[in-house]
Here is the input.
Amino acid sequence: MDDKGLGVITPRDHGNHRLDENLLGQLTAGYIQRAEHLLPRQGKAKPWIVRNNYAEDKQMMLRTPIADSALEEVPKKLAAPNQGRPAGKLADAA
Here is the structure.
């Protein structure tokens, strides 16, 4: 990122691939239910599918280019000081 002068790279779902279920599935613990809106989601198509398969993930990381149309790049000079960082603590959002 430094070599390209980038301040932030953010993944964006431009194809509406989001599934409603979070990555923890149907867990019913109270603390999970209260933070459900903050938990990451899985998608229905690449690159948003979470496979939880070390061998497949390793191959993807080693052989797939990083450049992706789902990544939004913001130059360092245009990035806000706090851009790309969580806005608050998990407890603050509940």
Q: What stands out?
A: The first strand starts at residue 6 and ends at 11. Strands lie at 6-11, 18-22, 41-43, 71-75. The first helix runs from residue 30 to 34.
